[in-house]
Design brief:
It contains five helices and nine strands, in the order H-E-E-E-E-E-E-E-E-E-H-H-H-H. By secondary structure, the chain is of the alpha+beta class. A hairpin with a 4-residue loop joins strand 1 and strand 2. The longest helix is centred in the last third of the chain and has 18 residues. The chain is globular.
Length: 199
């Protein structure tokens, strides 16, 4: 990303203007973006309100995810294992392992997350948080099915549903995403991610 494009998006997901998901109770601040690390790392802090959760269990097929917990403890389910990760502790979820996490306490959690490599997870997060903030998701934080198919196809390298659900979603997204795009649904919006580098 050139300096002008980076400057145009630098205000999104900052401490002054974090990404807010009012549905799941998450607040996100980027610490290191893909452009800062040559795509090797995306680092951000997710603060999660009491009872807050990520929108759905998922798999990062190509990226390792590392959690360093602060504030309140966080419950992490990775594969078949579930454990309460205490403040100051770290957990690593290898690529390909289904996982989800949530804040079971009465205090806010603040978890430092690192994704290696970054891929296009930055845009994916901006889009999901932006749609939720605009009231365009359900109570799980997911958009309507056609829009979800557009996102599933665009971000298939960044995040997928766990099997066996992905055995249905992946081929369905190939068929239904073009229909969603014809109806105006997108995986990326300037409103959420800043001006596109491609004009």
């Amino acid at each position: 990303m050139d300096q002008a494009s980076h400057a145009a998006t630098a205000w999104i997901g900052t401490q002054e203007r974090p990404l807010i998901n009012p549905v799941t109770g998450e607040r996100l601040v980027f610490r290191k973006r893909a452009a800062d690390t040559n795509g090797e790392l995306l680092e951000f802090v997710i603060s999660m309100a009491p009872g807050g959760f990520i929108s759905t269990p998922h798999v990062h097929p190509l990226a390792e995810e590392r959690f360093e917990v602060g504030g309140a403890p966080v419950m992490l389910r990775a594969g078949r294992e579930e454990r309460l990760v205490q403040p100051g502790e770290m957990a690593v979820v290898p690529a390909g392992v289904p996982h989800s996490w949530w804040n079971p306490s009465q205090e806010e959690s603040a978890t430092l997350i690192q994704l290696r490599p970054a891929l296009n997870a930055e845009t994916m997060l901006e889009t999901f948080f932006g749609l939720a903030a605009d009231g365009k998701t359900n109570k799980q934080g997911l958009p309507n099915p056609l829009h979800l198919m557009v996102l599933a196809r665009a971000f298939r390298n960044e995040s997928q549903p766990p099997a066996p659900l992905n055995w249905l979603v992946a081929p369905m997204s190939v068929i239904l995403a073009p229909i969603g795009e014809l109806l105006g649904y997108r995986a990326r919006y300037d409103k959420y991610s800043g001006p596109s580098r491609n004009g």
